[in-house]
Structures are given as structure tokens and as C-alpha cells.
């Protein structure tokens, strides 16, 4: 008998719903909130209100695109956390109501675990164990994945995430939010001619606060000498910043491979859409004999297909939650 799941994701500013059948994605719908461009970052209260407007149309569209009736759904998988509590509350509340109306089970999903399990949405799927560099606006982690829900956190950022470093740099350069994709585009037109320091963080930890500070002081100093410095050198600045962020990430990943001996290496999270990071991992894999796995763009950023896929493997194990479940802003792997 086939297993059909509805996945719901609302951890930040994207309202998403997906339907999968026996682990295969039938639909994957995302409503992105453009209003945050006006504020240069996500405003939690605005995000939660937008989720309330988007959740029903997005779920309806996902079900229609999947070509099923809602009564065919066997369970609802939803993001319980981590994320913005107001945004999560909308998705969790809807999931509970939807499941209750159809008398079907609920499956709670850790957002960061789902990013990793997005690799199982389609072929090629990494074999266990594998290492996963998970990079987003709020998280930067290296995880050893032993099984679908047996994961060991090997290292993470002690302050800011890599995605935040991209966005804060973009703000300094006068770029729109989110700045990561714009920096990526500009970097392809420039050269990494400016040298930014590499944080000396022990073990497999990351830090990006010092890098952000060094970029700020660098720009201030150059603008004092030439007020048009940013406009005249924007592409080279972006290329230099991107090169440093990517080098920090890949150096730690290489260290993790050396330490564990695991040569199956994956990339996940919103920043995994960055072209320099994708290319850098592929090159590193070729140089060192690793098997590398990079998801399609559709499965990199926040989406509900990854929630539904994670839910599918929990469904097979019979791991359900009940109507007393509540969202959590922090939830470690």
C-alpha cells in the first residue's frame, strides 16, 4: 500500500507545502515573503502574519499539483523547530488541525535534520555514514550522519552563521536582502583581490563575527580614501568575501574527513545554493577521492519536500507525535 504524506514548512519567512508518495515528490510549493526586502532582514511578526495568509493557499496548491484528494493523505509531517516561534506556530497549528480533521497521524520534524535528509528526495542518495556540511542563514554545522535519525554534531559556529555573514556584507555594500545570491552573482564578475583574515577557531568549530568586523573596518578605511570605493570595486569585494567564507567552510570540512575517515561528503542548507561553494566541494572531492553529494537548488533552500521526506522515514518507523505538540525555537540535532 502506498504512503502519501503532506509536508509543511514555516520555520522562517517561506511558507511551503509538499506532497510525496512512497518517498517520491509529487509537488513542492513555496510562497516567499517579498516584504522583508524593505527591512533588510526578516521581521518575525511580519513573517508570522504572512504565514497565516499563505498557509491555506499553499497547501491547497500542493494537493492539487500532486493530483490527489486530501482524503488520500496518510499523515502530516511538519517543522516543529528550530526557527522563529511565531512562524513555526502557524505551521504547527495548521498541521494539527489538518491531521485532526482527517484523523491521521502527525510527524514532527527537526528543520536541520530535514535539510540533511533532502538528499534522499531523489538520486543519487549518499550511503551511510556520510558527512554533511549544513550551511544556512542561521546555522553552520558539520554533521556525521550514521542513519536517517542517528546524527552526531561534529562542529558548529560559536557565533554567527555563514549565511548571516553574506547578508551582513550585502547590507554594508548596499545590496538588497537576501544578499547571498546577489553576492554570488557579482562575485562571478570580479576577482578575489582583497585578503580577509581567517578565524583561528580550534577543532571543527566556526566563527564569522570577526570576519564581519574585518569587512566593516576594511570598507570604512577604503571609503575614507575614496568615497566611491564600493561602487567602483563591488564585484571584486564580493569575490573576495565569498572566497574567504567558502575557504573557511571547506577547510573545516576537509579536517572532518581526515578525522573521521569518512569520504562520503554532502552539502545542505540554503547557502549550499552558492555556486562557489558547490564548485569548491566538487573540486575538493575530485582532488581527495571523495564521493560528493549536492542537492538540486529546489532542495537547498527552505522547502516542504525535505520535511515530507524526513517524515516518510519516520512514518516507516511508526514515530508519530500527538495533538499536545508545540513548536520550539531551539532544537539541537
Q: Tell me the quaternary state.
A: single chain
Mean pLDDT: 96
How many distinct helices?
A: 9
Taking the sheet with the most strands, its summary is:
5 strands, mixed
Features:
single chain, 333 residues, alpha/beta, five-stranded mixed sheet, 9 helices, 10 strands
Overview of the molecule:
There is one protein chain. The protein is an alpha/beta fold. The protein is 43% helix and 19% strand. The protein is built from 9 helices and 10 strands. The protein has helices at 44-66, 85-102, 111-117, 162-172, 180-187, 209-225, 229-260, 275-288, 305-317; strands at residues 4-9, 14-21, 24-32, 75-81, 106-110, 130-135, 140-147, 150-156, 264-268, 291-293. A 5-stranded mixed beta sheet has the order 3-2-1-4-5, with helices on both faces. A 5-stranded mixed beta sheet has the order 8-7-6-9-10, sandwiched between helices. The longest helix has 32 residues, at 229-260.
Short recap of the structure:
The protein is α/β, with parallel strands linked by helices and 333 residues long.
Question: Helices and strands in order, then pairings?
Answer:
Elements: E1 4-9, E2 14-21, E3 24-32, H1 44-66, E4 75-81, H2 85-102, E5 106-110, H3 111-117, E6 130-135, E7 140-147, E8 150-156, H4 162-172, H5 180-187, H6 209-225, H7 229-260, E9 264-268, H8 275-288, E10 291-293, H9 305-317
Parallel strand pairs: 1-4, 4-5, 6-9, 9-10
Antiparallel strand pairs: 1-2, 2-3, 6-7, 7-8
Helix pairs in contact: 1-2, 3-9, 4-6, 4-7, 5-7, 7-8
